[in-house]
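sanity check this:
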Amino acid sequence: MVYLAYPSSLPLPCPYKNSLTRLGGADDGSKILCGVEILKSFTNCVVYSLGSFNNFNFEFDLLKQTSCVIHTYDCTSPPPGTPIDRLTFHQICLGDASTLQKFMYPYNPQSENRIFNNASFFKSFDKILKENKHEEVHILKMDIEGGEYSVFADLLCQANGTSLPYQISFESHWWDRDIYHAILHQKMFSQLWELGYRILQHEYNPSDHTCVEWTLLRVFC
């Protein structure tokens, strides 16, 4: 699936001294980033983290190693029990609520999940950038169990003028191994390629090979 989903090429090397760094421990939910050490000197580093499942290990690791501020978005989980310095939690999901059902469960049009029927839980990427007064996002981390299709459909729409993240680390999901989601994969990665993103690394989820972790860097604008 990896080779079908993306134009054939060798992964690009991370151009920074310490190369790739895993954040968030060794368990599911960790992410691999490039150039974490250079973020220490950034005074305006912004990270958007989509999906938490009430697990903030990724955020803790990144906050320890950088001066970044993190905005975590998850409309399905509660905020952290105690405030975390430089982290703002939003009980909101990103993307278009009207497309989430067809992207995640195209064969089950009557999903009972409350988030599918409440547009107030969702905001576009453009809208949260404006609300937060952010002109750029250095890192977008995402693990939202199939919701990535809806987020990318919004984020990669060139007509909306969104400032694209410099680096994206996310997990893709192809649970049913169906042609519908295979086509979504192909379209998603083709858009990423056209917008200047290149793969730095990928790894299969050891417990489910239909899920793949990706790290991409935007090298062409």
